[in-house]
Specification:
The protein has helices spanning 53-59, 61-77, 117-121, 125-152, 188-200, 209-218, 222-232, and strands spanning 4-6, 10-14, 17-26, 33-37, 40-46, 88-91, 94-101, 107-108, 112-116, 158-162, 169-171, 176-180. The protein is an alpha/beta fold and 243 residues long.
Length: 243
C-alpha cells in the first residue's frame, strides 16, 4: 500500500474568494492533482516533487471556484429533514406522510410510511426509516433486475444494497449488481434506468455507442432519466450528515 499523509487545513484567496484546502502527499502521485468535492478542496502532490500547492491552486483558480460553487449549491438543495411525525418522505417518487404508531410491524401505504413506535423508541427515526427503505429496495430492485435481465438476455449473480456517496449503481466483473438504496426515493422509471444501465454492463463493459444503444433499447427515455438524477440527486440525501 502506498504511503500518504495529509497536512492541516490551510487557506488561500482565489479570485476574491477565501478557500480552505488540504494538502496530501502521495508516493503514488506522478503529478499534482486538485480534488474538489462536497467535503472541500484537496491538493495531492508527489512525495518526490518540490511542488507548491498554492501555485497549483492559483493556476486553476477559475476551475476550483466553479466546482466549489457547484457543490455549495448542491449542499443547499439537500432537504432539511426533521424525521418527525407528519413529515413527507418520497418513496418511488411519491411523497408519503411519516407516521409513528403502536403496531406489530412497519407498513407502507399509498400515502404513508408507518413505523412501529416501539422499534423507533429503541433506536432513532432516521435509522429505522433507512432500514425500511433498504428493505423495500431489496425487494423492488430484485424484481426489476429479474424483469429486465430476462428481457435483455443477461444473467446477474446477485443484488447488493449499498450506500455509495457518489454512485447510484455499479456492476462487478463477477456479475454482482450494486444499487444505492436511496434510489427508492426516485421515480420508478429512474430506478429502472439505473437497473438497465448496470445490467447492460454485463454485455458491454464500456460506455461506448454499443452500450448506449443497448440501454436505449430498453429505456428509450434514458437521457431524461439520467438528467433527472443529475438535477435531483441532492433531494435523495437524508441529511447533510450522510455526505
Amino acid at each position: 500500500m502506498a504511503k500518504s499523509q495529509s497536512s492541516d487545513r490551510r487557506t488561500i484567496e482565489l479570485l476574491g474568494n477565501r478557500i480552505e484546502f488540504g494538502v496530501r502527499q502521495s508516493s503514488d502521485a506522478t503529478k499534482p492533482r486538485i480534488d474538489v468535492d462536497i467535503h472541500g478542496v484537496t491538493v495531492t502532490v508527489p512525495d518526490s516533487a518540490d511542488v507548491q500547492p498554492t501555485k497549483v491552486l492559483r493556476e486553476n483558480a477559475a476551475w476550483v471556484i466553479e466546482k466549489q460553487r457547484g457543490f455549495e449549491k448542491y449542499r443547499e438543495e439537500i432537504p432539511d429533514r426533521t424525521f418527525e411525525t407528519g413529515e413527507s418522505f418520497p418513496l418511488l417518487g411519491t411523497d408519503r406522510e411519516l407516521v409513528i404508531e403502536p403496531a406489530r410491524s412497519h407498513t407502507i401505504t399509498n400515502t404513508s410510511i408507518r413505523l412501529r413506535k416501539s422499534t423507533v423508541e429503541q433506536s432513532t427515526v432516521k435509522r429505522v426509516l433507512e432500514n425500511v427503505y433498504r428493505r423495500e429496495a431489496r425487494d423492488h430492485f430484485a424484481e426489476r433486475a429479474d424483469y429486465y435481465a430476462e428481457q435483455m438476455g443477461v444473467e446477474y449473480e446477485k443484488i447488493e444494497i449499498r450506500n455509495q456517496r457518489t454512485k447510484w449503481g455499479s456492476c462487478s466483473t463477477t456479475g454482482t449488481i450494486s444499487l444505492n438504496w436511496r434510489l427508492m426515493m426516485a421515480p420508478p422509471e429512474v430506478v429502472d434506468y439505473v437497473v438497465v444501465h448496470e445490467l447492460a454492463h454485463l454485455r458491454e463493459k464500456n460506455h461506448d455507442d454499443e452500450f448506449w444503444s443497448l440501454v436505449a433499447e430498453y429505456d428509450p427515455e434514458y437521457e431524461a432519466h439520467a438528467e433527472w438524477l443529475n438535477e435531483n440527486s441532492a433531494r435523495l440525501i437524508f441529511t447533510e450528515d450522510d455526505l
